[in-house]
Design a protein that fits this description.
The complex is a heterodimer of chains A (431) and B (588).
Chain A (H helix, E strand, L loop, with lengths): L13 H6 L7 H8 L1 H4 L12 E7 L23 E3 L6 E3 L3 H5 L4 E7 L6 H10 L12 H9 L11 E4 L15 E3 L16 H22 L4 H16 L2 H5 L8 H8 L3 H14 L4 E6 L8 H25 L6 E7 L2 E2 L11 E2 L3 E6 L8 E2 L1 E2 L5 E3 L4 H12 L6 E3 L5 E3 L15
Parallel strand pairs in A: 1-7, 1-8, 4-12, 5-6, 5-7
Antiparallel strand pairs in A: 2-3, 4-11, 8-11, 9-10, 13-14, 15-16
Chain B lengths: L8 H24 L2 H19 L41 H13 L9 H13 L5 H9 L5 H10 L2 H14 L13 H11 L4 H9 L3 E2 L6 H6 L4 H12 L19 H11 L2 E13 L2 E12 L20 H8 L7 H14 L19 H13 L4 H9 L8 E2 L4 E2 L15 E2 L4 E2 L1 E2 L2 H11 L25 H4 L17 H9 L1 H6 L7 H9 L3 H13 L5 H11 L5 H13 L1 H4 E2 L1
Parallel strand pairs in B: 4-7
Antiparallel strand pairs in B: 1-3, 2-3, 5-6, 8-9
Helix pairs in contact in B: 1-2, 4-6, 7-8, 9-13, 11-12, 14-15, 14-16, 22-23
The chains are: A alpha/beta (431), B mainly alpha (588).
Chain lengths: 431, 588
């Protein structure tokens, strides 16, 4: 067996390796361990340049007026000034200077619009394209990308969808495309290897015993969906435990200077660094969450502090992606669930505002330096409204996924990748 | 589902808006001092809030239900008659079965066969006390006469101390209990719930105590429930109506509900009850927090009828006032169509996997129960037995329906008229022809591992029972990885597995430490007390962890692994393997 890039395991004998799988507990999984790409296999979509997506999720509703759509010297603008960026005609908040220098590689959508006021509903809608229902859990765009792009050539042992700091259920696409959840990039996952006292040899022995015991239960419940889901997770977990794969999550592998550049105290920054490593390792969709933007109180203080952290992390990420020649194959998307009110409230804060907000997008063959849509002083969409469906359609086009396709839930209900039939990818972003 | 720590500050923001508007309206009221004019101003304030809050909110008239408003039907005065049932060899064990079997007969579906005694022991133990049964318990169980066995087992479980532990977590989820409540001592609410369950207080009594709690949490721990939400009327309204009344009013805070009849008026009516109490600062207290000594306020709750303006969901008002006392009265009245039904439905859902009303917080004429007479019967049974929770649990677990063998294919049922496309309110119900194969909750997995390794009662540091841990658990903890909620929202627990769960069981510290042979480990105890042979020890391990005997093949495999020496590390590996089998985590 030759899993690409897993030389360490070639030191084990073939028989030992075969015995140490849960292969017999689920036919497909056995094959999967010989050829990991078959575990996640699905035909690819068309041919475009982008292979992966990094979604930088600003949780809480990032104030667009104090970041990417500044309105200096107006009633609603607040105290921040605007600075020019390397993109013609685009100015952003003075507290994002390094990001401003990167803007010729990025495009800015100032006319994002939606209609959900509540965090959980708006977040759900931005991630899945659907509004939450009592009866159904939709799959997020990450799961869809993981399914349609399939595993990469590089290392089929990494889960195709990783989510750092925010957790999602698998939805109707099932557990194979559920995100691998990490609380934070910095701390990694200690459970990727057996504890020192156990060691690899003993672990393999235990695993063989476990495999034997599992056979019996499976005989009694041969086709239970829940149990085969269990096998999926176990098989994926065992794949991730391979030393070379587990190493991807170890940030100590990076030069200290680079870790410093991302922000050594910043959990978000280290998450961005991990995202780069994951994309390098072939992960299709990485989401890194940065919470705390829900500034009902002390909006300006908080946004200024967070902007500093954001600035450092994202500008370093973009430069890093370019230096590793990943930028043209990775779409970077920075967005939030809604914006914040132009009116400043009694606590020096801003409240929820889904009428208009901003999104930054770049990489993966998407044109940089463009401004898409405008807002009317940050208070309403002035031109070219962009809804979540349009955004998802844009991502799909960059990745070469046909967004009009339909997936079926286990109960046969159909779900289009992009719900709204009138949604269109933003043509201006594609040369 | 989202797993986040950010509370829904939209509610707080709107609360601020609403409060300032109402305060302004009320100051006008006081100045005017004329009742009719006061009422007018109150109305104006409500409309003003509605107008302001609804600016920019889309119009839901298209999706709202058409026609005159429909209310949930009242409970019948008497219990619905139990139909005699003649369905082949399937005989009912108690009235619950009459309803279920009658329906299955009507739909021409065969009921499932009964589960065996081993399965029943495991299932009832996990459902009633949250632990797998130990070999010692099972020895006693199989010592009883076969015909009495299951009934006595249920009685035995309901009398255990672990009953309160397990159900404190269940009710704690619904009440969003958190260990750290500003102004109250740690775990105050947990102690209150635990005490109420230990003494088997009637459900209506302790709910009433929660709603009307006064004083500081030190004097009256029930106060922690109100302090947890800082007595914000809007937050409490959303949470209490969802958990205890089974309706989702959240949307109706800002606009009329998009697909049910609830309006903002209903929301403000319910919120009005909470305006009849307020938080006050009782004193300051020094406490140590992370090595520093800090001064923290001790808060309390006091009722003040002056601002109370409560109107119940049914439109009823109470003679006991328009504040929390009035709410407690209306909540627990027999003519409240929600309270008892919602409670028995939640108990049913926990034991049977699917509620009679599904989802359990979707009570509406648009989402009828799968078995309406059964739900009515159970609710009246509950009320007539003074809201005794254990009585209902006993009834359900002693029914034939509960004791069916578990299986994959449960016959489902869709409420008539439900749109399969949108499914906005309703979900598939069940006909209960078999017991679905359910996955254990986080606490059940955690505590079962501790029980099977003899550690549940030891209370050691990192290996403490779930009930001893502060809630919500740390996001990276075992419990959260397995789906324990953040206790901020009332989203239902995710029952899905994950790669993280697999990795936690494969490599995590918790399992690896739990399986070490400490001096009170059952294995060593059996060796000392019974002088079991290695083969007998293998059988005992299977009984302890999987509540069954090993097959001859399994016994052979494990024996050859352990060898005749039976070394410590080998037994650790056997336990590890038993915990990691998929079978362990499922409730057969």
């Amino acid at each position: 067996m030759s899993c690409p890039g897993c030389e360490n395991y070639q030191t084990m004998t073939r028989r030992a390796w075969l015995r140490s799988t849960l292969g017999a507990a689920g036919g497909a999984s056995f094959l999967g361990l010989l050829r990991p790409e078959l575990l996640y296999a699905l035909p690819r979509g068309g041919s475009r340049t982008a292979d992966s997506v990094i979604l930088l999720w600003m949780g809480g509703g990032m104030s667009h007026l104090d970041t990417f759509d500044p309105q200096p010297k107006t009633d609603v603008g607040g105290p921040f000034e605007a600075i020019r960026t390397t993109a013609d005609g685009i100015s952003i908040s003075e507290h994002l200077p390094r990001l401003a220098k990167e803007f010729r590689h990025l495009s800015l959508i100032r006319s994002m619009t939606g209609s959900e006021f509540a965090h959980d509903r708006a977040t759900y809608q931005m991630h899945t394209g659907y509004v939450p229902l009592a009866s159904m859990q939709h799959s997020t765009l990450g799961s869809i990308v993981a399914k349609y792009k399939g595993p990469s050539d590089r290392d089929g042992c990494l889960p195709p969808y990783v989510s750092i700091g925010i957790d999602w259920a698998a939805g109707y696409l099932g557990p194979r495309y559920a995100p691998y959840y990490l609380g934070s990039g910095r701390d990694g996952d200690r459970n990727l290897s057996p504890p020192g006292a156990i060691g690899q040899v003993r672990f393999d022995d235990r695993l063989k015993l476990l495999h034997e015991l599992d056979k019996s239960f499976k005989k009694q419940h041969p086709r239970d969906a829940a149990l085969s889901e269990y096998a999926e997770h176990y098989n994926a977990a065992l794949l991730m435990m391979r030393p070379r794969t587990a190493k991807v999550f170890d940030l100590d592998d990076e030069p200290p200077a680079l870790r410093e550049a991302y922000g050594s105290e910043s959990s978000f920054g280290q998450g961005c660094l991990l995202a780069r490593r994951l994309v390098q390792g072939g992960v299709r969709f990485v989401e890194v969450a940065f919470d705390g933007w829900d500034t009902h109180q002390d909006n300006f203080e908080t946004v200024q502090a967070k902007s500093a952290e954001l600035d450092v992390a994202v500008s370093t990420l973009l430069a890093d992606l370019r230096s590793k020649k990943l930028f043209d194959r990775t779409v970077v998307l920075l967005t939030s669930e809604f914006g914040r009110t132009p009116a400043i409230n009694a606590n020096k804060g801003r409240d929820h505002f889904p009428q208009v907000w901003s999104t930054v997008i770049g990489g993966g063959g998407i044109r940089g330096g463009m401004m898409i849509g405008r807002s009317d002083g940050g208070q309403a969409v002035a031109d070219r409204p962009v809804r979540v469906g349009d955004l998802h359609a844009t991502l799909c086009q960059a990745l070469g996924i046909d967004c009009t396709q339909t997936n079926y839930a286990p109960d046969k209900r159909p779900f289009r990748i992009v719900k709204d039939e009138s949604a269109r990818a933003i043509a201006e972003l594609f040369a | 589902m989202i797993d986040r720590h950010t509370p829904d500050s939209a509610i707080s923001a709107r609360a601020d808006d609403a409060r300032t508007s109402i305060a302004r309206a009320r100051s006008l009221t006081v100045a005017a001092r004329i009742k009719p004019v006061a009422a007018l101003f109150k109305y104006v304030a409500v409309v003003a809030i509605a107008a302001r809050v609804s600016a920019g909110i889309p119009d839901f008239t298209a999706s709202r239900p058409k026609g005159p408003r429909a209310e949930l039907s009242r409970l019948p005065h008497e219990r619905p008659p139990i139909s005699t049932i003649k369905f082949g060899n399937f005989r009912p064990f108690n009235p619950i079965d009459n309803f279920i079997l009658a329906r299955l007969q009507q739909e021409k579906i065969r009921p499932g066969r009964l589960c065996d005694d081993w399965d029943f022991a495991r299932r009832a133990s996990l459902d009633l006390v949250g632990l797998v049964p130990t070999a010692t318990d099972l020895e006693r169980y199989f010592g009883w006469k076969e015909t009495e066995r299951r009934g006595r087992w249920v009685d035995h479980l309901l009398s255990q101390a672990q009953y309160a532990d397990h159900w404190t977590i269940f009710w704690g989820d619904l009440l969003r209990e958190q260990s750290r409540v500003p102004g109250a001592p740690p775990d105050a609410l947990k102690q209150f719930i635990h005490g109420s369950l230990r003494e088997n207080q009637p459900y209506d009594v302790w709910v009433r105590e929660l709603m009307t709690a006064e004083g500081t949490a030190e004097e009256n721990p029930a106060v922690a429930f109100l302090l947890r939400d800082r007595l914000e009327p809007e937050t409490l309204t959303v949470s209490v109506t969802q958990s205890l009344l089974g309706v989702q009013l959240k949307c109706a805070q800002c606009h009329d509900h998009p697909f049910d009849w609830w309006t903002q008026r209903d929301f403000q009516g319910m919120a009005g009850f909470w305006r009849g109490a307020r938080v006050y600062r009782d004193s300051m207290e020094t406490r140590e927090r992370r090595g520093r000594v800090v001064n923290v306020p001790v808060l309390g709750v006091r009722s003040s009828e002056r601002r109370a303006a409560g109107i119940f969901l049914t439109g009823a008002t109470s003679g006991l006032g328009a504040g929390p006392a009035g709410l407690a009265d209306l909540l627990t009245r027999k003519d409240n169509p929600y309270f008892a039904r919602v409670a028995v439905n939640r108990l049913w859902e926990k034991l049977m996997g699917v509620g009679l009303v599904n989802p359990a917080d979707g009570f509406s004429p648009l989402n009828p129960p799968s078995h309406p007479e059964l739900l009515g019967w159970l609710a009246l049974e509950f009320i007539d037995h003074d809201y005794d929770l254990k009585h209902i649990l006993r009834l359900i677990t002693n029914s034939r329906t509960y004791q069916q063998a578990s299986s994959l294919n449960v016959k489902t049922w869709m409420p008539p008229g439900a749109s399969a496309e949108e499914g906005l309110l309703s979900s598939e119900g069940s006909l209960f022809d078999v017991m679905p194969l359910r996955k254990m909750t986080a606490e059940q997995v955690h505590d079962s591992i501790l029980a099977a390794t003899g550690r549940y009662w030891l209370d050691e540091g990192a290996l403490r029972a779930s009930i001893k841990q502060p809630y919500p658990a740390n996001p990276r903890s075992f419990l959260r990885i397995f789906g324990a909620p953040d206790r901020d929202t009332l989203l239902p627990r995710s029952r899905a597995g994950s790669i993280q769960q697999a990795l936690t069981l494969l490599n995590g510290d918790f399992v690896n430490r739990a399986v070490t042979l400490h001096q009170d480990h059952p294995l060593l105890y059996w060796q000392r007390s019974y002088g079991l042979s290695t083969a007998q020890m293998v059988d005992a391990m299977f009984i302890q962890f999987l509540t069954r005997l090993p097959t001859s093949l399994e016994r052979r495999k494990v024996l050859s692994y352990v060898g005749f020496g039976g070394q410590e590390w080998a037994w650790e590996d056997v336990q590890w393997a038993l915990i990691n089998t998929r079978e362990f985590q499922y409730i057969r």
